[in-house]
Amino acid sequence: MEIRDDIARGSLDLFFRYGIKSVSLDDISNHLGISKKTFYQHFENKDEAIKVAANSLIAMSKNFISEIVNDKTDSLSKLFSIYTKLISQFNTCNPRFIYDIKKYHPDIFQLFTSFENNELHEMVTSIIRQGKEEGFFRNEIDEENVFTFYQNRFTAIIDGSLLPGKRTNDPVFFEFIIMGLIGITTIEGHKKLELKLNDLKK
Asked: What is the pLDDT of residues 155-171, one digit of tens each?
């Protein structure tokens, strides 16, 4: 099982860097230092490796977001942490990866869509509701619209459509997160956000 997990993680690393169609079984074998025979002992084909890798990525996302949601910190810090963590997770992602998933593996792309529409949606909207109670987020904002706005922006960052040519780890995308937070915060929320940004500069 450990070897299977290693193969899935190594495959995902290559898919992220180069896209799915550009990566062959030879590439995966050479990257991991294994034979194709070893690969076939654990996976029926490349498609199965892609699906396992995708499920692994989603599971990691669920785990770290769940930890953030259950943390005893304020809502602003939670929302900030989720989106910075997600961008960090995808900082080596080539837009070809998203394109290939959508075009050639719609069943696997549906796994990501289901995660966004269910678990991620519930977690983020619950944090926004918490923020309203804390006085950090404006009461009149609609958490459904805020989630949709953030998720569309995040997707555009990952697939390269927001600023073509810039990779996910470009500082400009961090600024987009900050601008989005400023737009939904109260005066008290602004103060809290400013303190957090000052801490990051130290």
From this structure: 887 777 877 777 666 77
CA distance 160 to 95: 6
Superfamily of 56-201 according to CATH:
Tetracycline Repressor, domain 2 (1.10.357.10)
- Which residue in 61, 72, 52, 70 sits closest to 1, CA to CA? 52
CA distance 176 to 150: 10
Q: What is the distance between the alpha carbons of residues 155 and 148, in angstroms, rounded to a whole number?
A: 10
Tell me the β-bridge partners of 137.
Answer: 185
Query: Residue 170 carries which DSSP code?
Result: S
135 close to 188: Cβ distance less than 8 angstroms: yes
**Which tokens belong to 46?**
């490349």
**Using 50, 70 and 90 to split pLDDT, how confident is the model at 202?**
low
